Amino acid sequence: MGRPLPRPVESKVNVELRRYGHGDLPGIRQVLLDVHADSYSDQAGDPFVQRFPWFVDHWGGNPGFSCVIGYEGGEPVGFVYGAPTGAGREWWREYLAATPDNPSTFAVSELMVRPRWRKTGVSARLHESLLRARSEHMAVLLVDTTHPRVQALYESWQYRKIGERQPFPDSPLYAVMLRTLR
């Protein structure tokens, strides 16, 4: 069972945050799938959205996988997860003129909050709790370019857009966003 984390960011709801790692995936996988199903119920027929279980297994298979799940009264309200990029495999480098002195990067793969808990501050708490424990110098993530408000939210969390990328033929075009952590 994940251990509770302190509350770094205020929110409008009382949510307990629990941290999980690579070895915990079998026990939390269904929670991630259930939160995703609720969050994307309006897009359930989208083939890219339907591949989410593959992404959970892919990211969770990384030994550095890290996940924070928020619970209110025992009910999962959202999660965030990712993993460090391998040394020399910082795919975002192609968008910068010069590689930073310390390119160590944590890739934030998913941040998801169920509809009932959106706009309550939960996403900020989940995100900051995940990154607070990281030793990497930077964090990178992708944001669907058709969601400018989500991109603006990440910009308010000190990310900056450095390019655009479509990682899969059936995926949306994403803004590549980078943030310095240290």
UniProtKB/TrEMBL annotation:
PROSITE patterns: GNAT
InterPro entries named in the record: Acyl_CoA_acyltransferase, GNAT_dom
Domain of life: Bacteria
Domain N-acetyltransferase: 15-182
SUPFAM superfamilies associated with the record: Acyl-CoA N-acyltransferases (Nat)
Pfam entry (one): Acetyltransf_1
Record protein name field: GNAT family N-acetyltransferase
Higher taxonomy: Bacteria, Bacillati, Actinomycetota, Actinomycetes, Kitasatosporales
